[in-house]
Design brief:
It is a single chain. By secondary structure, the chain is α+β, with helices and mostly antiparallel strands. Helix content is 38%, strand content 14%. Strands 5, 6, 7, 8 and 9 form a 5-stranded antiparallel sheet that branches. A 4-stranded antiparallel sheet has the order 1-2-3-4, with no helix packed on it. The longest helix is centred in the C-terminal third of the chain and has 18 residues.
Length: 398
């Protein structure tokens, strides 16, 4: 049981702290000591680069990612939300509201709206005692000044134009390719979508991507190509199981594993594990919807785009790398939809990604009715996939 000193007048402390600047200073001090506060309450929360998360300690839920408290931000640290019972709507979404909710749970047994709660004044008194501080001390500089300086510096830097000596300008890439690639128009993709994504064939025999449909991968500003991946224009050979011109002989066994005979080939030095295809386009839609859709290949992204679904990114395969997950962590997504292919590898990927991400995100898995999303028609996506996606988006709306 947590012991709190009684106030002489129930609202006297609260009245002393109605000044918003002082409440903000108190919140900053609490966030500077947040780990100690969790230890004091005996609360266990997982930690990520942007938030604490776990079961909601206020209403006593058992969903391991229902509670999220964001420990960083340009101006507002300690913002939190309970996705199960919206406890923040009863105790306010500040860190002071969080403490009031926890105290109400521990001292009053609060579980539902209408149950008895700890007063705001008693919450302030508890925090002053815990921090061993008083009103006058709140006027002194805290370590949050350093935090604010660092975050403001990061913000300023993020607004500066990025100069890079790496990558090729998008205009140069478009001139080097034959756009659109007939390989994909024959598969039913529209000329517009292939033109939008600069998908074309490399016909220069001196280039590593010769006889491949080149899919450029751009930086977050959609200006420079940071790498590319190329899909062979040929189908898999039934004899050697490699991808080569059917009019040519199969490669010898000692050569068959060379990159030129692979279905997909990445540009030299491209760290695919650090990028998500279409992140440059999808990031604003992920931020708005709070939902990111993970698919295996660029073709899946294009089909979803044609169906009006703009928040998908491709992993270049079935594995979500740690670097790709870091990108997701910066996207503002609260939920992930795993929409991998309808085959054994895709089935395993859905379960693997679910286990990897379920402590950080709400994870929803969807299996396409065709081999993959790229093989589905727009009508099929609109009737089978779109309603499920919309349901997830509605569930995480703030």
């Amino acid at each position: 049981m947590i012991t709190m000193a009684k106030t002489e007048t129930p609202n006297s402390v609260a009245n002393d702290f109605l000044d918003q600047s002082q409440l903000h200073a108190l919140s900053e001090k609490v966030m500077d000591r947040f780990e100690d506060l969790l230890d004091h309450f005996g609360i266990e929360l997982a930690y990520s680069s942007k938030k604490y998360y776990g079961c909601c300690p206020i209403h006593g839920g058992d969903k391991h990612n229902a509670f999220n408290l964001f420990h960083d931000g340009d101006t507002y640290r300690g913002n939190w939300r309970c996705f199960t019972m919206q406890c923040e709507s009863h105790f306010k979404s500040s860190v002071i509201g969080f403490v009031r909710g926890v105290l109400s749970r521990k001292e009053k047994g609060w579980e539902n709206p209408g149950d008895e709660t700890i007063s705001f004044a008693d919450t302030i008194k508890f925090l002053l005692d815990f921090l061993k501080t008083d009103k006058e001390d709140l006027l002194q500089k805290t370590s949050s000044d350093k935090h604010k300086f660092i975050t403001q510096t990061k913000y300023i830097k993020s607004q500066q134009p990025v100069k890079t000596n790496r990558g090729v300008e998008r205009g140069t890439i478009r001139k080097a390719l034959t756009i659109p690639a007939s390989y994909y128009t024959n598969r039913g993709y529209t000329t517009k979508i292939l033109d939008d994504y600069d998908v074309g064939v490399c016909t220069n025999p001196k280039k590593p991507m010769f006889n491949r449909v080149v899919v450029p991968i751009y930086d977050t500003d959609y200006k420079f190509m940071v790498g590319c991946t190329g899909r062979s224009i040929f189908e898999q050979c039934p004899k050697c199981h490699r991808w080569h011109n059917p009019s040519d002989n199969c490669p010898d066994d000692k050569y068959k594993n060379l990159p030129e005979y692979a279905k997909w080939r990445h540009s030299q030095g491209f760290a695919g594990e650090s990028y998500l295809y279409n992140f440059w386009q999808a990031k604003k839609h992920i931020l708005d919807s709070k939902v990111a859709i993970l698919v295996e290949s660029p073709g899946n992204v294009w089909r979803l785009e044609e169906a009006g679904i703009h928040n998908s990114v491709a992993m270049f395969g079935v594995d979500l790398s740690d670097g790709q997950q870091v990108l997701l962590d910066t996207s503002g997504a609260l939920a992930i939809i795993v929409l991998t292919d309808n085959d054994e590898a895709g089935n395993i990927a859905r379960e693997t990604i679910r286990k990897k991400c379920e402590r950080m995100y709400y994870v929803h898995c969807i299996k396409p009715t065709a081999n993959d999303v790229g093989d589905m028609t727009i009508d099929q996506i609109n009737t089978q996939i779109q309603p499920l996606i919309q349901k997830v988006i509605e569930s995480v709306k703030i």
